[in-house]
Design a protein that fits this description.
It is elongated and about 60 Å long. The chain is mainly α. Helix 2 packs across helix 3. The chain has a two-stranded antiparallel ribbon. The protein contains 5 helices and 2 strands. 38% of the residues lie in helices and 6% in strands.
Length: 130
């Protein structure tokens, strides 16, 4: 959510948002957003500067940052498919009835994340909520 907000206002790094700005825009707890931004800066997805003119901005243009790259920082995408009978209970040699479909769904998710970048959010304006 923080990355999509930074992409919405992306203008090459001129617009900088504080963790408070991002938290307010996404209705998130500010301390959580602050910790998240530190993690994102450590993996070179965002840049930050302290002080009154500081804040955070995307480290690269939005079209160069895939959703996969972001999600990989927080999730183990290589360990996504779990058998309904328990982890390590089936595989392609001895599949459960859902094994192949779960593998296909997992691949669809990975493909979606790899093919989607933050540029879809640039300039996006959400409709006001009621």
């Amino acid at each position: 959510m923080a990355m999509s907000r930074l992409a919405e206002v992306y203008d090459g790094g001129e617009t900088r948002l504080s963790s408070k700005d991002i938290a307010k825009a996404r209705d998130l707890p500010q301390p959580n957003v602050a910790k998240l931004l530190v993690s994102l800066s450590q993996c070179d997805l965002v840049k930050g500067a302290p002080g009154p003119t500081g804040g955070y901005w995307l480290a690269r243009p939005p079209q160069e940052i895939s959703l996969y790259e972001i999600v990989c920082q927080f999730e183990k995408l290589t360990e996504r498919v779990y058998c309904p009978f328990g982890k390590n209970s089936c595989d392609s040699a001895a599949p459960c009835p859902l094994h192949q479909r779960l593998v296909e769904l997992d691949q669809q998710l990975i493909d979606f994340l790899q093919e989607s970048s933050l540029d879809v959010f640039v300039g996006f304006q959400r409709a006001p909520t009621k």
